[in-house]
Write a structure and sequence with these properties.
By secondary structure, this protein is an all-alpha fold. The chain is built from 27 helices and no strands.
Length: 497
């Protein structure tokens, strides 16, 4: 249409396509930065990308290794909310564009229609990532695979070396361009390609990845954080992407533009319903508390809890800690969900979330040894065996305060090869050779002044006595005093029951 009208009645022109793609990018960006920024924090704190050759070699030692390495490079940018949301928005738009470009190979004349259909894989991915254990390596691998569809369509017998290379780079979702080329060719030799693909997958598994269960090797070793987990959408989305490529590429006459916009609206509505089902409210609320506490935004934790608080010990611990940091613990304790003394400090729970608030408050109270134990257990509980920049950083702090400079240096050496933890790690490494610098640091000096002066053996059931000892040896440790008093109140209520 003349003048490039934004909404011409016929023909989906470039302006409408650009407008729809921009809406996708903006929508995904707003979704992550406004609705679920805690998911970005969760992914970032459960990995540590290192700029070292050994790190790259370790990732590339497994099928799908390049997608895994590239995704972890991107996930380190989740350290800031805006950059994390931007990364996921760009991935969504790139995946949609890759589906649309691949559809041009279906018809020899390159005719395509139903532009909105190319958005379906990106929108389904948004629903799929409601499972917080789905790694960014999965959308990255799918993007790489869909982008290779035009290459495989023209490759002919060159697919015989592209298949093992693609499997090693992107993992099992490389089946998308393989199936695309087979369905597009529809010749007897394409059946041989499928047989060859099965042999490559099996031989590669037996020779190079036999330490993993066969299901993981054939459905993705590092697509989810929990390798035993195989969500249905992990299998469905690649098939949907393949179907959308052919659906967009069928040689239909151009539909009126309102059909595309109507389909787009239906897909967005369906995504909203899917997101509502896929994102567990209680789990994400706990992650939100952890994210806010990490960034010392305690008042926001209280405001969230005033609207809704999950009835779990983890949430109670986070809210009570935030109340203390705002000087409201004793006064407002009855206003929020409580579960006895576990709502003040949790006994160690071996997962990668539950102990974090307890570890932080014990650090501030002057118990660096227990803090070290909690953070170490949390890092060891990361299901796919990754390191954590956040956890390593606090573990280095605990060792510095205790004067254990050897372990502290090892942790700081690792952090010095990262992007956002490097500056702080190098500053603390300089302290290792200057005791006066450690004592001059306000945080380290305070923790050293309030921590235990004597070694002793105890356990969680005597934690209140440890608080009393901390206050008796240093009257400035008001946190230990208030937590001890509240602990006794809650213990008394538990006894009355």
């Amino acid at each position: 249409p003349a003048g490039g009208c934004l909404f011409p009645f016929f023909e989906m022109d470039r302006v409408n396509k650009a407008a729809m793609s921009v809406l996708l990018g903006v929508g995904v960006f707003v979704f992550w930065i406004c609705l679920y920024p805690q998911a970005l924090n969760y992914h970032e704190q459960n990995q540590l990308f290192l700029f070292t050759w050994d790190y790259f070699r370790e990732r590339m030692a497994l099928p799908g290794g390049f997608a895994d390495w590239l995704s972890e490079f991107l996930v380190q940018l989740f350290y800031y909310r805006w950059s994390g949301a931007l990364v996921l928005a760009v991935l969504a738009v790139l995946l949609q564009g890759a589906v649309w470009r691949s559809a041009g190979c279906v018809d020899k004349r390159g005719s395509r229609s139903l532009y909105a259909l190319s958005f379906l894989p990106s929108l389904l991915m948004l629903v799929h990532m409601g499972n917080m254990e789905v790694l960014v390596s999965y959308p990255v691998a799918l993007l790489l695979s869909v982008s290779l569809c035009p290459v495989f369509a023209r490759a002919g017998w060159h697919r015989l070396w592209l298949i093992p290379l693609g499997w090693w780079l992107a993992g099992p979702v490389i089946i998308v361009p393989i199936l695309f080329s087979v369905l597009l060719g529809r010749k007897w030799k394409d059946v041989l390609v499928l047989v060859f693909t099965a042999l490559v997958f099996y031989a590669g598994y037996r020779l190079l990845a036999a330490q993993y269960p066969m299901r993981d090797a054939f459905f993705g070793v590092n697509y989810t954080r929990i390798r035993e987990l195989l969500p249905a959408l992990q299998v469905i989305i690649p098939l949907v992407a393949l179907a959308c490529i052919f659906g967009c590429g069928l040689p239909f006459k151009s539909f009126p533009v309102f059909v595309d916009w109507a389909l787009f609206a239906v897909l967005v509505l369906g995504t909203a319903l899917g997101v509502r089902q896929a994102y567990d409210r209680d789990a994400y609320e706990v992650l939100a508390y952890d994210d806010l506490i990490r960034h010392e935004r305690y008042q926001e934790v209280i405001k969230r809890a005033e609207k809704y608080q999950p009835p779990t010990p983890v949430s109670a611990c986070s809210v009570n800690f935030s109340l203390f940091m705002n000087g409201q613990l004793s006064a407002r304790l009855p206003e929020f969900y409580q579960c006895g003394t576990q709502g003040l400090v949790l006994p160690s729970v071996r997962d990668n979330v539950s102990d974090l608030t307890s570890a932080e408050l014990l650090w501030m109270m002057g118990m660096p040894n227990i803090t070290l134990q909690y953070y170490f257990d949390s890092m060891e509980s990361i299901e796919n065996g990754r390191l954590s920049g956040r956890f390593l950083s606090r573990m280095a702090d605990c060792n510095l305060v205790n004067g254990w400079y050897g372990p502290a240096e090892k942790y700081l050496d690792l952090l010095s090869h990262s992007l956002f933890y490097r500056k702080s790690a190098l500053r603390r490494k300089e302290m290792l050779r200057d005791e006066a610098a450690v004592n001059a640091d306000p945080v380290y000096a305070y923790v050293r002044s309030v921590r235990f002066r004597d070694d002793f053996i105890t356990g969680y059931d005597r934690l209140d006595l440890m608080m009393a000892i901390l206050y008796n040896q240093n009257g400035n440790n008001f946190m230990a005093a208030e937590y001890y008093n509240v602990w006794q109140r809650l213990k008394q209520k538990e006894g009355m029951r």
